[in-house]
Amino acid sequence: MRRLEKALEDPQRFVVTGELTPPKGTDLTALLERADGLGEHVDAINITDSHAARMSMAPMAVCHALIQRGIDPIMQMTSRDRNRIAMQSDLLAAWSLGVRNIAFMGGDPPKNGDHPEAKGVFDVFSSTIIEAAAGMSKGRDMAGNALTGNADFRIGAVVNPGATDLDGEIRRMIEKYEAGASFFQTQAVYDPSAFEAFMRRIESIDVPILAGIIPIKSLKMAAYMNEKVPGVNIPQDLIRTIEVASDRAAVSCEITADIIEAIRPLCRGVHVMALGWEERVPAILQAAGVR
Questions:
Q1: Considering the entire predicted model, what is its pTM?
Q2: How many domains does the chain have?
Q3: Residue 130: which domain range?
Q4: Can you say whether residue 222 is alpha, beta or left, with left for phi > 0 and alpha for psi between -120 and 50 degrees?
Q5: Quick count: other Cβ atoms within 10 Å of Cβ 290?
Q6: CATH number of the domain encompassing residue 66
Q7: What is the pLDDT of residue 291?
Q8: In this structure, are strands 183-188 and 15-20 parallel, antiparallel, or unpaired?
Q9: How many CB atoms lie within 10 A of CB 11?
């Protein structure tokens, strides 16, 4: 089940990861159908951790279900809802269930989600828990206590190429890399030239970068992302192209494929967040010359 690890270690392979959000409930039928459709076209699938601070099934259970179907999952873990004890405990449990890939991030503040009265934990920075997870491969927990059995994860982290404070973002990226992150997935990329400038800034960091890709599903979505999502800037010419199109969905997929094709020489792969358009991902990848 080390499909992602093998892909990342193959310098000739353009890595593709997908993403799915667990349900708010116990019925996994729809998610598993989407996972089956994506599985043969991607190297792994991220399973989100109460995405956008909206409560959903814990990703550990979903990852276990994907493993049973022969799909390599990446379990996302945020520091928003757990302290260092709970995070390490969950890591050990995930390893015991076959999870081999983890992606760490802070997570959206609870006030932005569907339980705004919840208290955010944020006990540790991402770099701190990354270091703790890396230490588990050497048989030690965060406090230096011995483990009975090691957990040797492929550790991922996130970076935002469009961050307002790009110097600070790159500094934090370096901290995560030095702590043990072995691949990075980025915020959504819509401007290949801006992404190229970012990649030049970090070219001394020898780590695979998977560029975030989110198809523009509607004009409303584009406006929301430009206004509300930090580090995302969808150029107005792209929005205008979709606005005047007779088949907006088809044109959006063409734009997405063009972006992937343009950034392909710049990075090791893409992280496609289809947001309900999973059935369109194979055609997008084919149009981009990736699969």
A1: 0.96
A2: 1
A3: 3-287
A4: alpha
A5: 18
A6: 3.20.20.220
A7: 78
A8: unpaired
A9: 7
